[in-house]
Hints:
The complex is a heterodimer.
Chain A: H1 3-6, H2 17-24, E1 37-43, E2 48-57, E3 60-69, H3 72-85, H4 90-106, H5 114-119, H6 132-146, E4 151-153
Parallel strand pairs in A: 1-4
Antiparallel strand pairs in A: 1-2, 2-3
Helix pairs in contact in A: 2-3, 3-6, 4-6
Chain B: H1 3-8, H2 12-16, E1 25-26, E2 29-30, E3 32-33, H3 44-56, H4 67-87, E4 95-98, H5 101-115, E5 122-126, H6 135-144, E6 147-151, H7 161-168, E7 173-179, H8 191-200, E8 204-208, H9 212-215, H10 220-223, E9 227-231, E10 242-246, H11 248-253, E11 264-267, E12 272-274, H12 288-304, H13 306-325, E13 330-332, E14 342-347, H14 352-360, E15 364-365, E16 367-369, H15 374-380, E17 385-389, H16 396-413
Parallel strand pairs in B: 3-15, 5-6, 5-7, 7-8, 8-9
Antiparallel strand pairs in B: 1-2, 4-10, 9-10, 11-12, 13-14, 14-17, 16-17
Amino acid sequence: xxxxxxxxxxxxxxxxxxxxxxxxxxxHARRLEVFDATAxxxxxxCGDRVQVWVRRDGEAIGEAAFExxxxxxxxxxxxxxxxxxxxxxxxxxxxxxAAFREMARTGEAAAGDASMARLRPLAGVHEYPSRVKCATLxxxxxxxxxxxxxxxxxx
Amino acid sequence: MNDIQLATAFDVQxxxxxxxxxxxxxxxxxxxxxxxxxxxxxxRAVIDSMVATMETQYANIHRGLHWMSERxxxxxxxxxxxxxxxxxxxxxxEIVFVRNSTEAINxxxxxxxxGILKPGQAVVIxxxxxxxxxxxxxxxxxxxxxxxxxxxxxxxGELDMAAFEALLTDRKVGLVAITHMSNxxxxxxxxxxxxxxxxxxxxxxxxxxxxxxxxxRVDVQALDADFYVxxxxxxYGPTGIGVLWARRELLEAMPPFxxxxxxxxxxxFERSTWAHVPHKFEAGTPAIIEGIALGAAIxxxxxxxxxxxxxxxxxxxxxxxxxxxxxxGVTIIGRAQDRGGVISFTLEGAHAHDVxxxxxxxxxxxxxxxxCAEPLMHRLGLDSTARASFGVYxxxxxxxxLAETLTRxxxxxx
Lengths: 155, 414
């Protein structure tokens, strides 16, 4: 059955195909055996958990990966984040998160490069205030890892 | 599906007509409210009571000598009578008003826990407690040297009675604090057997009746309970008002919980003396409007009667278990023999939060998450479930709408 036939057409802004796809089949969902930083994030209100691993490559993030227990939004967000921050410096990753968080809260896609464009499908969460945290939790974990903190909590 | 009403001789439409909010539309669709275990909707009788108090009989209570204060005091105190009747308490003075079940349990943990229990004694809880019946005991453990023991739950979601008894045999347990009905699994615990065992080994017993009192007649004397707590807002009453019932002699022996006005007999800078039970535990101006309206809620429930309420719940639960388990990919969590109208489930291929968001689009309200029972989730190997819970106003058709929608949710994600 197609989503349209399922009668959830108006949810397509939230559950875009790219989110369903990355939620079902995340590409970066694995534990890094060799890594430089890691941090866990959890949302105590809903039970979502994520751990992010980072391997550095000089100044840049060589690779980011994650393991998560959570909803389609949080898994897809973690996966798209891992994809987007690869090759970026920690400062660039922080700037991307600031722009991403703004987009998740307002729905306004911030100006940005192609990596930011890949995150745009998640803008739909702004209409679902209780789900914004699902999208931002992996980023909090990533930043905690980059900052050398072991634990992040969703805001 | 309409034969449910026939089977229970329960005119659910007449009940629904008394809940103005049930006429609201959600995103253009009729509200299907299946989250009553979190908080129930309010009937007209409760709404009217709150308005009437503010419009016709409001003043601070227990202190004014004037007409309005006396009138408000009488109305507030009549809720104590109603609560005593509801629980079949021996005496109205055994009813202590609190904000909610959480505060009631904290009161017992603080006052009975620190005042009566001795370091080295133990408190028993179970794996299927709400956080409100876990954390106060952890705080007592850490502050007062009380051991905290946790009774196992079987894979079916029932209390493991053999394991429970084994926790009691060294006679160190001073108190068993246990749910009367799980807010996750819907399991009713065997309260009489628990009390018998607890007393046999010298322990008192507290029931968290937050869920149970909504669906079943509670008789604290028949249960042989020592403490029983419930909250008003799940029983169709307002938020901010709840009840602690305890045996009179326990309340007499317990030191006060909070100090302030209303709970004293006399105050000098050298010392104060305490008011009589239950006022000793009721410091400060209480939730007057809400307290009076809780009386209206209790009377409203009594008018329907627990025979009808329980029969309705049983029929709905049976219907829901059949309908939901027939949905491909749905797994019902827990299969207790004695269970009621709180049903947790998972849907293959869809996380509980995604389920909740999708069904919300059809106007259906369910809870998703760990239900403030993280240790139970851990015990069951789950991070979260979706939960449908029922009230007097829930219909079989609403459950059918949920079941049909879940089928479509599954299609959406797979």
